[in-house]
Specification:
The protein is mainly alpha-helical and about 70 residues long. It has one domain. The chain has three helices and no strands. It starts with 10 loop residues before the first helix and ends with a helix.
Length: about 70
């Protein structure tokens, strides 16, 4: 699982591909994300997917409250 095709793991590319808004972060924060391991990126992507999967349910419930 790498984002560059060069054999080196590119955490930022993998996070971007998963839909994380990496480019909205400042340079210091992007640097931290760029240093994440493959396992850490996999975990973040897993959490994002789980949140995305329930987003429709949560948004629908919030609309009912209005």
């Amino acid at each position: 699982m790498n984002g560059t095709g060069t054999g080196a793991f590119d955490a930022l590319a993998v996070l971007r591909e998963a839909g994380h808004p990496i480019d909205l972060l400042d340079e210091r924060h992007r640097r931290v994300f760029s240093e994440l391991s493959e396992d850490e990126v996999t975990l973040l992507n897993s959490i994002k997917k789980r949140l995305d999967d329930v987003a429709g349910e949560v948004e629908a419930q919030e609309l009912k409250l209005v």
